[in-house]
């Protein structure tokens, strides 16, 4: 009995010790840099997702029945990152990490806050503002909103480069396993906020008003600014390596510029200060693109950028096309939820494959999986229910002749009845749509009728949803390759150019849609998208082959030297 009591007491003490140890470990983790980065990143991503979604809705509401302001904002945002991506990255490289993070965070949140205030004033006094200066004050307000939103996006790009492309490398101590884990966790946070944040702010705007929605975003940014500032400052203090930063490339580029200037000293001296500054900016952009091109992972980065030229994602183009094919808004929302889950599965697959086969092979497997799933989308173009009609691309055939062909028993287009005209674009005017997170929901669509077959649209979404597993695994692979292979002094400028490339290829996909905007064109866009994706993965295969040859040659040299 006494032995049993002693054993029982020992068991209880052991449990208490284990609980204290676990609670102590949990407390250490909660105070550690990884958790602080996760919370800061979650707040930043949540605010970004809410803002971009709400701003699209605000711009549509302000401009009535037109998508013009939304299109202008998208063009300005993409163009600014394309032009200034290298400059932003160079600024990140040249300044201390804490100053870069704090300045980017401050500029981003203050820009969103001021923009929210301007929008609240415009929504509250819109009729009065339209009467001033014959309506030109309204144009001024629209311009201010777009400029402030663009500044916030540029600051967000700088913050993303600083934290996700630099800080977490130092925090993990350049440990590849820990780096892969942090990358995957940050991507999971991004996937979750991409779904939940727009739903929350959308509910606020629906149940209350646009003014209340602006106020909600304003309050969120003020709170987020404070918390993120404190957390990032804490991380900077507890990770001493963040305070040291090597800049050898900066000195080299400065010498190159000085050498270039000494070749024509009289011409440089005669230039006004503004022109000299402008020339310096051009030289910085040139040096950034040169630095990007000479990276060993150049082909892998280009391959990732090519994946942005696609209509095979859950953006307004694909979902708008789905509506013309009779897919309901509730079903689209369900499909978006499933796609988010498959995206999370992609992050899990990445961590498993990397541990088993290494980073290079993980990228190859992910590429093959991505391409294999996209073949379902290609199949959807030629299956029953597809509205593909190549004859409407011919300039020799006018609308009357195509109408006569349809009436004479030619192939019936399987478009949604509400959009029976072959000239109906994928995106109608504002009077018949509601915007959700990357989704267009149509009103006044008659029920009880639909396409003759749902086989085509089923294959399309099977491919799009399943492809996200390989897509996000491949994205994480290339992200880590860039992190591991770019010199510390060039991380900012190279990742800035990478952001520019991503936006450039994204612009191409919108140009594709503008060139072929009808539902009957969508099959052609699918095929072109798969061609771009295939080209991107081919670039990665070329990089992987070259990298493996390099590693094999190094191994053989080491064996020879050991002999």
TrEMBL record:
It is found in: Membrane. SUPFAM superfamilies: MFS general substrate transporter (SSF103473). Coiled coil: none annotated. The keyword Transferase does not apply. One of its GO terms (cellular component) is membrane. Its main location: membrane. Pfam families: FPN1. It is a multi-pass membrane protein. Keywords: Ion transport, Membrane, Transmembrane, Transmembrane helix, Transport. Belongs to the ferroportin (FP) (TC 2.A.100) family. SLC40A subfamily. This is Solute carrier family 40 member. It comes from Erpetoichthys calabaricus.
């Amino acid at each position: 009995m006494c032995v049993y009591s002693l054993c029982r007491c020992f068991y209880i003490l052991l449990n208490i010790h284990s609980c204290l140890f676990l609670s102590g470990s949990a407390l250490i983790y909660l105070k550690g840099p990884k958790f602080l980065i996760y919370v800061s990143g979650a707040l930043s991503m949540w605010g970004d997702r809410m803002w971009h979604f709400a701003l699209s809705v605000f711009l549509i509401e302000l401009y009535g029945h037109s998508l013009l302001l939304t299109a202008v904002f998208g063009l300005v945002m993409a163009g600014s990152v394309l032009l200034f991506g290298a400059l932003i990255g160079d600024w990140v490289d040249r300044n201390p990490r804490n100053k870069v993070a704090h300045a980017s965070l401050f500029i981003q949140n203050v820009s969103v806050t001021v923009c929210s205030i301007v929008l609240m004033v415009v929504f509250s006094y819109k009729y009065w503002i339209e009467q001033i200066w014959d309506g030109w004050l309204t144009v001024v307000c629209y311009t201010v909103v777009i400029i402030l939103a663009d500044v916030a996006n540029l600051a967000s790009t700088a913050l993303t480069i600083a934290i996700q492309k630099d800080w977490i490398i130092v925090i993990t101590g350049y440990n590849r396993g820990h780096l892969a884990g942090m990358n995957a966790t940050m991507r999971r946070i991004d996937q979750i906020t991409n779904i939940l944040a727009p739903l929350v702010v959308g509910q606020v705007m629906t149940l209350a008003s646009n003014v209340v929605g602006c106020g909600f975003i304003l309050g969120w940014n003020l709170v987020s600014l404070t918390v993120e500032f404190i957390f990032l400052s804490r991380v900077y203090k507890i990770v001493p390596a963040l305070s040291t930063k090597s800049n050898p490339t900066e000195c080299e580029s400065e010498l190159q510029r000085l050498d270039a200037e000494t070749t024509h000293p009289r011409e440089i001296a005669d230039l006004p200060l503004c022109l000299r500054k402008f020339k310096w900016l051009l030289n910085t952009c040139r040096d950034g693109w040169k630095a990007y091109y000479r990276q060993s992972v150049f082909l892998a980065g280009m391959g990732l950028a090519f994946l942005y030229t696609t209509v095979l994602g859950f953006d307004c183009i694909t979902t708008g096309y789905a509506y013309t094919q009779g897919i309901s808004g509730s079903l689209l929302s369900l499909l978006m939820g499933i796609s988010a889950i498959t995206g999370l599965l992609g992050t899990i697959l990445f961590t498993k494959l990397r541990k088993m086969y290494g980073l290079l092979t993980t990228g190859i497997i992910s590429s093959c999986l991505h391409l294999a799933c996209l073949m379902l989308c290609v199949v959807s173009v030629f299956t029953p229910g597809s509205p593909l009609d190549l004859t409407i691309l011919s300039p020799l055939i006018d609308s009357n002749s195509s109408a006569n062909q349809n009436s004479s028993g030619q192939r019936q287009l399987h478009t949604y009845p509400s959009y029976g005209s072959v000239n109906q674009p994928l995106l109608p005017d504002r009077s018949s749509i509601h915007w959700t997170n990357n989704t267009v929901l149509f009103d006044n669509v008659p029920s009880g009728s639909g396409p003759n077959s749902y086989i085509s649209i089923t294959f399309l979404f099977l491919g799009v949803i399943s492809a996200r597993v390989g897509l996000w695994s491949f994205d994480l692979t290339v992200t880590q390759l860039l992190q591991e292979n770019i010199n510390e002094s060039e991380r900012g400028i190279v990742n800035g150019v990478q952001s520019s490339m991503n936006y450039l290829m994204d612009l191409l996909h919108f140009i594709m849609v503008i060139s072929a905007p009808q539902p009957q064109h969508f099959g052609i866009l699918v095929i072109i998208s798969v061609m771009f994706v295939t080209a991107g993965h081919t670039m990665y295969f070329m990089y992987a082959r070259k990298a493996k040859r390099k590693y094999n040659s190094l191994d053989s040299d080491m064996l020879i030297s050991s002999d």
